[in-house]
Records
---
Amino acid sequence: MGQSYRKGRSWEDLNRKVCFSLNEELASMTAAGEKDESLQIPREYPFTMHTVGAQTMAVFSQSEADEISLEGMVVHRAECRPVVSDSYMKVKRLQIESAKPQRLAQQLDRAVTTIFKPVANHDFNLEFEKKKKSEGKMVRADRQVVLDMLFSAFEKHQYYSFKDLVDITKQPVTYLKEIMREIGTCNRKGAHKSTWELKPEYRHYQPGEEEEKSP
C-alpha cells in the first residue's frame, strides 16, 4: 500500500485485483485452538476499492507540539471480504447458533405452588379500580371540547356548582378542576358561596346583566 502513483493514472489502473491469503494453519484452527478439517474459516479475502460517495473524510496528523495538520482528503475506501463458500457459510451458521440463548426444558413431577404463585389482584390494579370508582367511567375529552361545553353552559347561567359542571361535562374531577381554575373562580362567600363563575375576561355578558340568583 506504500506504492505511489504518478499523476494522470486512471481509476481502472488503480482498481487492480488484490487478494489476501490467510495462513493455512491458522485457517484450520477452531475456536478452542484445535485443528478440525471439517471446519475451516475462509483463506481468501479479496481486497476491493470503492469511492466514498457523498461522504467527506480527511486524514489529519498531530505533532509532538499538539499541532494538527491536514494530510489529505479520502477519495476511496477499501474493503476486505471473505470469499463466500460452503465452508464460510458453515462457519457463519455455527456462529449464529452459538449466539442463541441456551434453553432448558425440564419435566416436573408435581405442580409448583410456592414459586411464582399467582396473585388474585395486584396493588396497582386495586388502586386503579378505586380511582375508577371515584371518578366513574369518565374519560378525559380533548381540552377544547371541554372548554366549548363549559362556555356553552355559562351562556345559560352565570353560576354553577362544581357538581353540576361535572354532570354537564362528564369529565374527571381533577381534570375539570384544573381547567376551571384557569377560566373561572370559585365564590367563597356571599349569596353564591361554593359556586363557580367565569373570570371577567371570559364572560359574554355585561356587569349589569349578571344573575341575581344561582340556578
Note: Confidence is low (pLDDT under 50) at residues 1-11.
---
Amino acid sequence: MARDPAFVLRYLAEVEELAEDVLAARQQIVDLDVKRNRNREALRALHKSPEPEGTAMVCFGSMFIELPAAQTRDMLRKDQEQLDEEIKNLRKELRVKVNRLYEAQGKPELKGFNLNPMSAEEMKLINRILEG
C-alpha cells in the first residue's frame, strides 16, 4: 500500500513541529527553574546576612542598584510566586502538547501523566480519615 509522498511529508512536518513545541516548552521550564533557584539562593543569602535590615546590591540588567534588604526580599518573593505560577502553567501546557504529539504519532495517551498533586488540606483530610 503506497502512500502519497505529499501526505507523508505533511505528516512528518506536523510531528516534527509538535515535537519542537514539546522541546521548547521543556527548555522554557528548565530556564525558569534555573531563575527560580537563583532567586531562592538570593533569598537565603539575604536571610543569612549579618545585617538583615541593611541594604542589598541588586542587579537589574547591566547595572547594580542598592536597595533596602526588606524591599529586595519582597521583590524576590513576588518574583518567586510569579515564576512558580509560570512553571505550573507551562507544565499544564506541556501535558497537552505531549498528548497531541503522541496522538499524531499514533501512540496511546500516557497513563498517569495528567495527575495533580494533592493540596495540603486534602492531605490533612486523608490523614484524619486514616487515623480514624
Note: The first helix runs from residue 5 to 48.
---
Amino acid sequence: MHMVLQAVAKTDEVLKAKVAKREEEAQKKLEEEGTSLEEQVRRIKEIEAIESDSFVPQAFKSSRDDIKTEPVEVKQDPESADSQDITLPVSIVYSDSDALAHPNLFMDKEKAEELWLTRLVSLRQERLMGSPVT
C-alpha cells in the first residue's frame, strides 16, 4: 500500500511539472509574440477550459456557403438623381454548379489531344535537358 501511495505521489509530481512547463512555454511564446496581458490571460483560460473534463468538442461549421449581401450606397451627381438606387453585393459569390466533373473533361477531343502533345513534348525536353520532371 505504501508503494502505491509513493507511485501516485511521484506521478502527481510529474504531471504538475509537465503542466508548469507547458505554462512557462506558453508564456514565453506569448512574450515573444508581444501579446498583451489580457490576451495572455484569455488564452490561458481557454487552454484550461479545453484541458478540463467538462470540455465537449463541437463540429466545425464553415461560413463559406452563407452568402451575405449588404446594400451599398452610391453617391450620384444631382443631374442623375432621378435614376434608381443601385445596390451592389459586398461578398464574393462562388459560381459552383455542383457538377461532378471538371468542365475540361468535356473539351473537344482534338483540342485535348493537342494540349496533351504539347505537354508531352515539353516534359520530354525537360527530361533531355536534365531538369527534374514535375
Note: The helical segments are 2-33, 37-51, 109-129.
---
Amino acid sequence: MAALTLRSGLLPWMQKIGPTARTLSVSATASQKTAPPAWKLGRLNHVAIAVPDLEKATSLYRDILGARVSDAVPLPEHGVYTVFVELGNTKLELLHPLGEKSPIAGFLQKNKAGGMHHICIEVDNITDAMAELKEKKIRVLSEEPRIGAHGKPVVFLHPKDCDGVLVELEQA
C-alpha cells in the first residue's frame, strides 16, 4: 500500500474517519455495564515540582515570570516545604525536602535538577474514591487520608497503577 501524504489524501482520510473513531470510542464506553462511581473527579488542583533550591525556584516564578507566590510553609508531617505559585486556572506547588527522611529528598537524589513530582486532582468524596479505587486494584499509598498543604484530606495513588504518574487526590 502506498504511503499516504497530505497531498494524496491523508488529511481528507483523517477528517473522514475522525468523527467515526470518536463515535466508536463513545459507544464502546457507553456500552460498558459499570455502575457510576459514588464520587466525582474534579478539577486539576496543582502540579507539584520538586526543586533542589527553593529560593531560586521561587524567584524564577515570582521575579522573572511575574507570578504570585506564597511564602514557604513547612509541612513536617509530609517532610516538605511548600510554595504555591498561583496561575490563572491552577497552581504549581514547589516542593523542597524538610528533614532527611523526606520523600522529596529521595526524589532529588535520583533527579538532581528536580522535576515534576505529582499531579493533584480534586474529588468530591475522598473516602468513597479510596474505597472504589482499592476495589479496582489501584493502590492507595496510605490507609487513611492525611491533611495536605491546603488543610484538606489527601491521598496518593501508586504511580505504577496510574501510567507512571504519582496522583494526589484532594477532598474538594
Note: The first helix runs from residue 10 to 31.
